[in-house]
Structure formats: structure tokens, C-alpha cells
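Let us begin with a simple case.
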Amino acid sequence: MPDSSHPTLFLLFARPLRQLGLLTAMLLAVTVPGAVNAAPDYLSFATEDEANSTEIFSRASPAVVYVTNKALRRDFFSLNVHEIPRGSGTGFVWDDNGLIVTNFHVIAGAHRLTVTLQDQSEHDAEVVGIAPEKDLAVLRIQEPPADLVTLPLGDSSELTVGRKVLAIGNPFGLDTTLTTGVVSALGREIQAPSNRTIRGVIQTDAAINPGNSGGPLLNSLGQLIGVNTAIYSPSGASAGIGFAIPVNTVREVVPQLIAYGRIQRPAMGLELASDRWVQRYRMEGLPVVRVYPGMPAANAGIRGAFRNSRGEISLGDIITAIDGREIRSNDDFLSVLEKHRPGDKVEVEVRNGDDQRKVTVELSAQN
């Protein structure tokens, strides 16, 4: 038997097989009419993955919109005020009443907002609610058409690393662009425009570039699983690390923005020291500056700062933990409150000098 590992022998051995293949094809051409023209038709052929991507894009792209942020500028010479584009991004239709979800940083500082739909019709939009701490915003377009397409909502808790994802957006002003990738990691943390920490963020290698912000991240069923919000890149363009706010966070935040214009969180009724002050004096915990009378913190016996007999300001209680979770910043404090509702009771650990104690605070509604 010839040694097929040797190149020359392999070629010599392969030649009769090629001849046999040619003879077989000739026989088929004679015995089977039209067999020579039986090559796959590209227009009708698609791999399973290609067919899935094409179907999702066809169904979801009509729900994706182009958001333009316009600002007013005064001409230096004529003093006339002109309207100029300040930036652009992506959004998607939330419901058939014309509500649009996008990123807060896409619409921040706008004097006028316009939304361009899939049919290229342009609509003025007004801000319904904003959540800078989650980098989300809700807009409403005026006189929405009757045939708006919405996206089905998925469940981001079902995601696992390696699952396919698709992003649709308007990178660099190029409208309705599809990119695909996988879930690269889960549970990431990024910084919101308000310097709050957004937790539980989805990391993906689907190409996300400037202009994609606010666009949908979809799973292989075409369900919304996230809102694309940021990229990690030394150059400013996609480097294969993009981030999306999980849809389970969007589910919680958007209805509050529609109803109240902001996130509703329970309150304790106190004022806390700034993070900069805490870092400057290397405090372990979060000092209470002021406690409002009649509010939960005051009712629980928490004390704020006060002036001593010499007129100097003395520290009151310092919050060190809530429900066993360490509190080192205002972000920690607010993140704990966001997990509760008015009427919930939390255990607050405070320190005042050498005195440490635990108090129970019943949270109230935010004023």
C-alpha cells in the first residue's frame, strides 16, 4: 500500500481518484438529466446560523430608531442662534404609544430631540423620564404612526457565557447595522454618567461602536436581553469588549420612568457626607450629616452632625453597614435602598466614637 504521508506518493495515489470522480460525474451527466446544474443556489441556501441572524434582523430592525441630539449655538459674529447636531445614538420602540428607550448619555444636554424611524420618517421627541444612575432614558415621539413594531422582552438571568447575541444600531451614523457575537462575560460593573455603579452588566464581543449606544442586544430568539451602552477601547472604536445593561434592569427602571419620570427608591430621611469628603478624611463608613425630623432615620434614633459647646461641628452617627452589607460610599448606600420598597425594614449598623449599635429602620416613600 502506498505511503500517503509522503507528498509525492500522495499525489500519485490521488490521481486515479480524481479520474474516477470525473468519470462518475460524466456518467451522472448522462444518466441524470440536469445533474451538472445541481450546484447549490446561493439565493436559496443559508446555514442555520445565517438563517437565524437574517430572520432576527428582519423582525427586529423595524423597532430600532435613530436618535439625534440637537443643541442651540449662538453665532459669534451675527449673534443668531442656530440649531446644530450635538450627537446621535440608537433607541428602540418600547410600546405602540410611541415610547422610545435609549441611553441617558445619548440625550443628555439636548435642546431638541428627533427620532428617525425605519421608514425614514422624522419625529420630534420629548423626554418622559431619565435615570442617569442606570444610563437609561425614555422618550415619547409626537404623533406616532399606527404600525410601530416592538421587541419581545427576554430574561437576562437565563444568559450564559458563549450564547449568541446580536446588536442592531447606528454606528458612526450608519443606520440599522447588524453585528453578531457571543456573551463574553456576565456580572460586570461599569460607571454610569452620574458616577453610580451599574451592576450585573453583560459583556459581549459583538461589535459596538459610537452610535450604537441605546440600541438593543438580542438573543437567538430575537428577544431583548440588553441595552448597548458602552465599549472598552483604547482607540474609541470596537475592540471586542462591549457592555449592555441587562433587560431585567430595564424591566424595573422603564416603568418607573414612564410613571414618575425618575427611579423611585425608598428613603430613610437623612443627608450623608459626600464621597469626596469621606475619601479625604479616610472615613470607614458614611457619616450622617443631617437627620430630618419625623422621618424613619430620626424615628430609629440615628443622629446627625451637631455643634458642640464650643461651636465646633462634631460627627454624629456613621453608617457602616445595612443588612450586613458594608457601606463605604453613597453608591453602596443607594444600591442597598434600590433593592427595597417603602415599608420594608432594614438593619442599620452605626458607629459613634467607640459606641457601636444596630437599629431597625422602616423605609418610607421618597418625597
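The second case is a distinct protein. As before, the sequence precedes its C-alpha cells.
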Amino acid sequence: MPQHTRCYRNGVLVDEAFGLEAVSEHLRDSGVVWVDLCPPDPVDLQKVADELGLHSLAVADAMSERQRPKFSRYDGHDFLTVYAVRLDVRSGELLTSEIAAFITDNALVTVRKEDAFPLDELLERWDSNADLTAYGVGALVHGLLDHVVDGHFDAVQGLDDQIEDLEDLLFDDRPHDSDVQRRSFELRKSLVHLRRVVLPMREVLNTLMRRDVGLVPHEMTPYFQDVYDHVLRATEWTESLRDLVATIVETNLTIQGNRLNIITKKVTSWAAIIAVPTAITGFYGQNLPYPGFAAESGFIASSALIVSLSGGLFIAFKRKDWL
């Protein structure tokens, strides 16, 4: 049995939570029917397919997973595949939920593989825009697409916030190289995944809004155009974030290289300073009668020479910012 069913007549919700056997009756009474199958039972889906004359290829696509977002036309109905997304803030992982939809003149059938999609929010959106439901199936499709695209926008916004946190971590005084690398990889993977979901939506909306399709009433055109604008913004935002993450990865490598150069300069400077007393003591340590050999004056001279040369090198390196 379907988990959710609704029937609208003249824009008014007249019945809900009815069985599949009542779909035909509502359709004969000029009602607009919405049926949701989650998870899709093959028997129930076939009943709906027989009732609405759905194409076997579209039914097979609705049952299979990992379909590309698309809008296809068949004789007597249209088929739509979209993905709702949600960002896990803690891990940076992008979670997706596939939604397939059969669209006829007076029926919308949604097929969901799992119950991760917030259906209550979709119903609330339809109920809060009850004046639009008078335009039939097109209004229901608009509510579905608007809700899905808003989810894309929220995910992009969440990824943007994550990248800002990553930038703060990148330029922290304490190095966080491993954290930056791991987080950059996670965010980049999520952005690639999001791009596969968001980018095809431009083609979906473009095809769906064509006049020869006849799905979008003239009164609903501005609403679908608004969804299309949101798709464009989400797409451009996703592309810019991908470039930004790539820049962060390159910047992190540059910072690591600069930090290594600084460490190398400091180690080299200290090695040069340490080499002075080593050279002088080695010189005076020879068993040869140099000036001050085996005398207190030689010890004082060598000590003074070590302090003066080492101090001079320290001051010179300090001025050059090598220490």
C-alpha cells in the first residue's frame, strides 16, 4: 500500500490517505491525484502503471538506482528524476535521496527508494500555497522542484560555511596540515557529488518549461522561472566553491613549503653559529705551540673570539630575519 495519497479538486484537498483502488475513482471525478510509493513495491507500482498507462522503460528507471537527473517524455506522460540532498555538517559528507516522478495530465506519482526525503516539509509547502494547487499537476511539480532546489541551495550554503572554517584553520598560527588536507578532500568530494546533482537540473528545468511540453500553465511560468534562477545560482555557487577548495589545497602546499624554508633557514643559521666555537676550539686544541698555547691568555683569547664571532653571526642573522 502507498504510504501517502492525496486528491485535489479545483485546488482544494478533498481526500487523502486512500488506497490505490480509489485512484481510478478520483481520476474519473476530475480530481488531481498524488501518490507516493516509499519504498516502491513492484506490485503496487505496476498497479499504478497499468492504471495510468506508464511506459515500461520509465517504470524500470523508477525501480533502478543512481539515475541521472533528467526529464523524459513518453506517450501520455512525462518522467522526472531528481535528487534531494542534505549535508552532514560534522563529516562534510553529502547525503542524497533519489526521487522519481511520473507526471500525467491529472496525476503525480512519486517513487522514493528511502524515507530520507522530508515529505512533511513538501506537504507543508503545498498546503501553504493552496492558491497554486488550482493549476493542477503543474503546481504540485513546482512545489516538489522548489523544495528540492532549496535543499540544493542549503547544501551549497553549508559547504560555503565549511570552507570558511577551513580557511580559518589554514591560516591558524599552529599548523593543521593533516586536518586541512583531510577536510579539503572531504569537501571537494562533496562538491563533485553535488555538481553531478545540480548541474543537470538546468536541462531538466529548461525542458520542463518548454511550451510544447504543456506542463507549466501560463500563470505558473514566473514560479518555475524563479526555481530556474535558483538552479543557476546553485550551479554557479558550486563551481566557484570547487575552484576555492582547489585554491585552498594549493595554498596549503605553498604554506608548507614556506614553513619548510623558514625552518631550513633557522637550522642553517644555528649550524653556522655552532660551527664558530667548533672551529676555534678545534684550532686551539691542536698539540702545536700556537700563540697562547697552554696558557691562560690563550683560553681568554679563544673564549673572547668565540663570543664575538657567534654574537656577530647571531645579530646578522636576526637582522635578516633568519632567526
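The two ends are 75 Å apart (CA to CA). Residues 221-284 form the longest helix (64 residues).
Keep these points in mind for the review questions at the end of the chapter.
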